[in-house]
Amino acid sequence: MNDNNKPADSDLLVGLDQIGQHLGMTFNQAKHRAASGDIPTFKIGKTVCARRSTLKAHFDKLEGRTDD
Fold first, then answer.
1. CB of 26 within 8 A of CB of 20?
2. For residue 15, what are the contacts with CB-CB under 8 A and spacing of at least 6?
């Protein structure tokens, strides 16, 4: 379990800290990328969230990869 009492393998990343850690970015870098639309995020209330699977698909697409 992580600090938010969610399983470590949960697809959901809650907050820019978790998103940044997952992507190897600082909080401020993740905040900037999310605000500019460079990474796919959504909000639950006022909290920025993302899914690991969506981020992977996003970067795979940027790299020209497909799972086909």
1. yes
2. 47, 48, 49
Residue matched to tokens 């990343």: 13
State whether the Cα torsion 42-48-53-58 is positive or negative. positive
Q: What is the pLDDT of residues 4-52, one digit of tens each?
A: 555 667 999 999 999 999 999 999 999 999 999 999 999 999 999 999 9
Cα–Cα dist 5/19, whole Å:
16
Task: Identify the helix (H) or strand (E) that includes residue 15.
Answer: none
* Per-residue model confidence (pLDDT) at position 55: 98
Query: Is there a contact between 50 and 40 (Cβ–Cβ < 8 Å)?
Result: yes
Distance between CA atoms of residues 50 and 60, nearest Å: 16
